[in-house]
Design the sequence.
């Protein structure tokens, strides 16, 4: 069986489980379950701490796992990113007391507090910057400056509201843009079954990104309509009972749905219908 590590808690857990469900895999009903075999799909799930998943994958204890790109890079494990998953996106940034910091070079010779010490050291080293120390904290990093633990912090930033409430502001370029990723062990052949898992997840990602659009259009306007909805390879164009009209079906990006509908209507298309895609293989 393909052994898959899944986050057991935190912001990664629920969307990871939902994605695997959409991909057709069995998922646990009791949060206390740590191991869940899925013999119908020839896989076995292990529910682990998100921070530990890359370590287990790198050691070969499990074959693949879902974790954050930031956690993978901070683990110093033999795990490598196999596929970005499109959820749990975040930005990793430096922040300091408002009005005092403008450039990452100022971090040299200063203390940095973070939950990702390996990632921070590696980033600063790549810029030739040496802090006086990197203090690892497991949470509430934004309090480190006020409590005198550090001069500056490096943390995951979503809206920045928590930082502003603590009297801090973001400065310098992002250290990393992170999201959930599927990771596997580096330096070894891909495990059996990973190709199936990859296709299934890619199918879920595509189904989330696209919708199916159907509409009727006069034959004389088919070329104009197809230019608006080119689909992935090419749209399906079918004759209607009224021979002056054709039916068109194409995949359209979900975030462009209403704009595309407006454009089609403007050129004369009618009966424009949009359907969600449950699953697909491309």
Sequence:
């Amino acid at each position: 069986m393909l052994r898959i590590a899944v986050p057991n808690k935190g912001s990664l857990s629920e969307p990871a489980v939902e994605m695997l469900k959409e991909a057709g895999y069995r998922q646990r009903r009791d949060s206390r379950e740590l191991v869940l075999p899925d013999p119908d799909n020839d896989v076995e799930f292990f529910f682990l701490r998100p921070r530990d998943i890359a370590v287990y994958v790198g050691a070969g204890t499990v074959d693949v796992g879902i974790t954050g790109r930031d956690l993978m890079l901070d683990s110093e494990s033999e795990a490598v990113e196999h596929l970005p998953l499109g959820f749990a996106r975040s930005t990793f940034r430096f922040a300091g007391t408002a009005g005092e910091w403008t450039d990452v070079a100022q971090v040299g010779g200063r203390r940095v507090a973070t939950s990702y010490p390996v990632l921070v050291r590696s980033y600063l080293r790549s810029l030739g910057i040496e802090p006086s120390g990197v203090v690892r904290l497991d949470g509430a990093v934004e309090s480190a400056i006020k409590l005198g633990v550090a001069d500056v912090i490096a943390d995951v930033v979503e809206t920045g509201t928590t930082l502003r409430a603590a009297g801090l502001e973001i400065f310098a370029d992002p250290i990393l843009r992170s999201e959930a990723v599927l990771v596997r062990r580096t330096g070894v052949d891909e495990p059996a079954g990973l190709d199936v898992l990859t296709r299934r997840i890619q199918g879920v990602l595509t189904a989330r990104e696209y919708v199916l659009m159907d509409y009727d259009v006069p034959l004389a306007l088919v070329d104009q309509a197809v230019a608006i909805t080119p689909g992935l390879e090419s749209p399906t164009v079918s004759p209607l009972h009224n021979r002056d009209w054709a039916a068109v079906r194409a995949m359209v990006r979900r975030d462009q749905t209403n704009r595309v509908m407006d454009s089609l209507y403007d050129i004369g298309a009618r009966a424009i219908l949009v359907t969600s895609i449950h699953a697909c293989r491309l």
